[in-house]
Amino acid sequence: MHPSAVDELFDPLQEITDAEIYNFIPRGHVFFFKHTQTSWRIWTIQAQKFRIHEEGDDDPVPNGYFVVFLLEKLPGIDLERTLSQFSLEKRNRVRIAFAKALREFYSFRLSHNDPARRNLIWGEETERCFIVDLEDVEERDHPVFSTWRFNPWRDFRYCELCLGELDPDEANYDPMVPGPHEEIEDTDEALYALAARTKHISEQGDNVATKVK
Question: From what superkingdom does this record's organism come (predicted)?
Fold first, then answer.
């Protein structure tokens, strides 16, 4: 990791908390997930501790450096292999928490390029879902991009939350997962209404004119 040509005065020892870790991350951008995530920052990483090693003349990259961060451990478990062990009621709680986290994530005009169950942490004690693996996140701040809205049909499928097992067959989806043609309002009330369902609506004929508020 080197200072860029336009950042000749960058001093890693003094400005490490503003380090440009990845090329597409602009310096000085700080996002806080106040409600559904933790208090630590992304883009500009707020680490608990860090250690800097400067490369010498005999090292592979003279005058370069690398940084080792010690970050906060998230309170919870990853969902990759555990969601299948949850009851239907518990999976619904996970989906509700995930939807609230993703809404806040989208509000910062962010896009995750690796959406998957393995990149979600479930904190049962706090009923919160944490989105991780943020090195695959991009900021969509160009005017040509609109701010994404939470879409349960799309986002539950992308993040593999449609059912306990990793089964692509829509016929096996949990009742809370809406059909592809349903119009679902982006509200807490609509989420709770979906969670109260006892049957998954999968046929197109059943979805037309269906609107959940």
Answer: Eukaryota
